[in-house]
């Protein structure tokens, strides 16, 4: 989002709907996405700010950095603004053209420092190579479960020695009491950010069977099966967590 233009307020689900359609990253969502995700995902701002610090540590000269599901480019902007590493090429991938249309203007400062390429395609079809960092920020949860292993295995194979994957996701808990408690706190977080009960309910209905979260154990088992040597959770806020996975 341009520094001179405040984000538009998310009111996508503010009015009652006779039928709530499946969530999609269409024009309406793209227009308010920055406000939507910041008011909906606890810890999102910290995830972005620390992503730049992570990139400083792990980016390697002459490699590529991929943001798979780059949306409006906030992840690339955070990393690119911190990096002085030479000969870095950023690749932002998203299958929503409305998102990418709004992404490029947000990367004006990064464009002055690094090469940035944006691609409108499904991340399952994206060639990935010579990567020192791959970012999946709240993206894998939208990929069908049966396609997640193959994607992570390709990412692992694409990483140079010492490369990392940053994987941020909404998570589930095996303990039903913990699941209920953290879901309640998440909804309270949304209310504190101005969302009504109607908005929370309608958006939740729209995301059912579209955003499919998994447990921490499920993620860690899949990362190991995909070839990653180890992983660790570096940030968790309520029912959202971010992993670092190392080749």
UniProtKB/TrEMBL annotation:
Keywords: S-adenosyl-L-methionine, Transferase. InterPro entries: CmoA, Methyltransf_25, SAM-dependent_MTases_sf. Residues 65-163 form the Methyltransferase domain. One of its GO terms (biological process) is tRNA wobble uridine modification. Its EC number is 2.1.3.-. Pfam families: Methyltransf_25. Catalyzes the conversion of S-adenosyl-L-methionine (SAM) to carboxy-S-adenosyl-L-methionine (Cx-SAM). Belongs to the class I-like SAM-binding methyltransferase superfamily. Cx-SAM synthase family. NCBIfam families: carboxy-S-adenosyl-L-methionine synthase CmoA (TIGR00740). This is Carboxy-S-adenosyl-L-methionine synthase. The lineage of its organism: Bacteria, Pseudomonadati, Verrucomicrobiota, Opitutia, Puniceicoccales. The gene is cmoA.
């Amino acid at each position: 989002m341009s520094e001179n233009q405040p984000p538009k307020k998310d009111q996508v689900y503010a009015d009652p709907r006779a039928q709530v359609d499946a969530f999609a990253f269409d024009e309406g969502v793209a227009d308010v996405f920055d406000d939507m995700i910041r008011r909906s995902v606890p810890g999102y701002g910290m995830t972005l700010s620390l992503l730049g610090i992570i990139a400083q540590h792990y980016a390697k000269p002459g490699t590529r950095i991929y943001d798979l599901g780059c949306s409006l480019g906030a992840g690339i902007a955070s990393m690119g603004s911190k990096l002085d590493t030479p000969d870095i090429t950023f690749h932002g991938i998203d299958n929503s053209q409305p998102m990418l249309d709004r992404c490029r203007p947000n990367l004006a400062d990064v464009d002055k420092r690094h090469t940035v390429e944006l691609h409108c395609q499904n991340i399952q079809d994206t060639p990935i190579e010579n990567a020192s960092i791959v970012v999946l920020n709240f993206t894998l949860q939208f990929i069908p479960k049966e396609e997640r292993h193959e994607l992570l295995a390709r990412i692992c194979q694409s990483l140079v020695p010492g490369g990392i994957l940053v994987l941020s996701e909404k998570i589930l808990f095996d303990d039903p009491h913990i699941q209920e408690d953290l879901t309640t706190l998440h909804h309270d977080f949304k209310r504190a950010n101005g969302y009504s009960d109607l908005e929370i309910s309608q958006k939740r209905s729209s995301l059912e069977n579209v955003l499919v979260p998994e447990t921490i154990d499920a993620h860690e088992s899949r990362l190991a099966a995909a070839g990653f040597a180890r992983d660790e959770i570096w940030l968790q806020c309520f029912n959202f967590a971010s992993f670092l996975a190392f080749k």
